[in-house]
Design goal:
Layout (H helix, E strand, L loop, with lengths): L45 E7 L2 H9 L4 E9 L8 H5 L6 E8 L6 H10 L8 E2 L2 E2 L5 E5 L2 H20 L8 E4 L7 E2 L7 H4 L18 H5 L1
Parallel strand pairs: 6-7
Antiparallel strand pairs: 1-3, 1-6, 2-3, 2-8, 4-5
């Protein structure tokens, strides 16, 4: 099933067992921003989680954004606890490759991060992004508050309207709460800020070229 042309999410019975503790440690600080990866984070900062394909290029998009305090990559939305990269790539954990963004809402709004998210990938592709095929590459937003959930859903609806007008299909992005059923598991050290360490490394990020009308959602109802 998992080697077929069409990826399929595993059931809990099919998913890998995982482990109670991670097999690896995560670096203390961001190689570009210099701030803590895992916290504690300064008071007043907020957390956002975005899955938009291969997390190497996606993370760079966010750390280059003014108002972002730190970023780190990991695995979220799956079944297997404390997975490793090879397990996630097998399709047998159910996770997405995700970027955790810690930001200062006084300097950059969550809506601005949503706009960057939508415009940095094609959210209509299901279990793939470009040449990257697999359940781990699906598009998702994991929200940390009712306000984030409301804004994420509104932005999805607004972007769907302009994508439809440009000839694209339905958005397949999941908007789900980042609760205890969808914990964030940090990825291995070599994945953190990968494109800073490997400037010529692979970056599969590419958008539709269609601008996301953030701010239009409320006006259009």
């Amino acid at each position: 099933m998992f080697l077929s042309r069409t990826p399929v999410l595993p059931t809990p019975e099919q998913a890998l067992r995982g482990r109670p503790e991670p097999e690896f440690s995560v670096p203390e600080r961001h190689t570009v921003l210099g701030n803590a990866l895992l916290g504690p984070y300064p008071e007043g900062l907020e957390v956002a989680d975005f899955a938009l394909g291969c997390f190497w290029g996606a993370e760079r998009k966010f750390w280059q954004t003014d108002g972002v305090w730190t970023t780190l990559v990991g695995y979220q939305g799956g079944i297997t606890p404390n997975p490793v990269y090879e397990e996630v790539c097998s399709g047998l954990t159910g996770h997405t490759e995700v970027v955790r963004v810690v930001f200062d809402p006084a300097k950059v709004s969550y809506e601005s991060l949503l706009k960057l998210f939508w415009e940095s990938h094609d959210p209509t592709q299901g279990f793939r992004q470009g040449n990257d095929v697999g359940t781990q590459y699906r598009s998702a937003i994991y929200t940390h508050s009712p306000a984030q959930a409301e804004q994420a859903a509104a932005s999805r609806d607004a972007y769907q309207r302009v994508l439809t007008g440009s000839g694209y299909g339905d958005i397949t992005t999941h908007v789900l709460p980042a609760d205890d059923t969808r914990p964030f598991f940090p990825a291995e050290a070599y994945h953190q800020q990968y494109l800073d360490k490997n400037p010529a490394g692979y970056c599969g990020i590419g958008g539709t070229g269609v601008s996301c009308p953030i701010g239009v959602a409320k006006a259009d109802g």
